[in-house]
Amino acid sequence: MRNIVDAIIEIVEAPKYRLKEYSESHNRANQMGTALEEYVKDLFAGTVGEKDPGKRNQKLSETFCYLGNQNNPPDSMLKNEGDAIEVKKIESSNAALPLNSSYPKAKLYSDSKMINNACRTCEHWTERDMLYVVGVLKDNMLESLVFLYGDLYCADRDVYERIRNCIREGILAIPDIEFADTKELGRVNRVDPLGITSLRIRGMWQIDNPFLVFDYLYRRNNDKTFNFVAVMSEEKAASLQNFSKLEELQRENENFCISDGKVKDPNNPAVLLNVKLITYSV
Question: By CB distance 3.0 to 4.6 Å, which of 7, 131, 151, 231 could disulfide with 43?
């Protein structure tokens, strides 16, 4: 089955950083955020050059076990308990990533209340690696693209759940209110004497973007039109049976590089984790 290695090879062999032109020529979405999501699907499915909608749909079905959207996260999941993929668009290299009601995820779990039943039951699974794909878009151009695994970026879910639960418990402690069951942080019904007003309490999570978080590991080359970087743990790289294809690509392409690095453990910054840093710029 296809995985992150195949997607990286697609990027290097035929980068499509003129995203608006690419989207229009393939009859994809016009909105740039959605165009980025569709491009990422094409990278993983091997349909970057496919213009026949029927053939593309078939390839997508063969690659993904689940396809979601902003209201039904994640954006996609690879078959055979492969990665869960979340795509984020930003327009400034310093902008934070908006996560809205969904807190950062080191892993995706099937018992999460933030996913729907179709996602939960598309395969028999309990836990998946979470891959964040972040694109910097400016003037319809894809300037930078990041592939980053959540276990190097986000703390364990207990860290975020503790904050969420404390807020909910605090609301419940308010006397004489009608608290409704909800996936949001909370909802208080019948606030006024007429019982016609309700209060929705929603979390609006955000996280610093990878270029800021990992500036000690990687800096973009601003003289280049397009910069790509992927960061994965040594364990993840070793688990990919086709990782050797990237090593072959490094020998063939001088703009493509694989190197070793260390990043701070999101749960304990005193601990450094060994990673593979994969970069490409043109």
Answer: 7
* Cβ–Cβ under 8 Å, residues 136 and 147: no
CA distance 149 to 236: 9
The whole model's pTM is what?
Answer: 0.92
Phi/psi for 237 (5° steps) reads -60, -40
Kindly report, residue by residue over 97-109, the tens digit of the pLDDT: 998 888 999 999 9
Q: Are residues 134 and 88 in contact, defined by beta-carbon separation less than 8 angstroms?
A: yes
**Which helix (DSSP H) or strand (DSSP E) does residue 200 occupy?**
strand 199-201
Residue count (the chain): 282
**C-alpha distance from residue 7 to each of 45, 150, 211, 225 (Å):** 8, 18, 20, 20
Residue whose C-alpha is closest to residue 48's, from 84, 23, 76, 20? 23
> For residues 129 and 107, is the Cβ–Cβ distance under 8 A?
yes
Give per-residue pLDDT as tens, 241-266. Answer: 999 999 999 999 999 999 999 999 99
Asked whether 179 and 188 are in contact (CB, 8 A), the reply is: yes
Residue 26 to residues 34, 64, 154, Cα–Cα distance (Å): 13, 20, 35
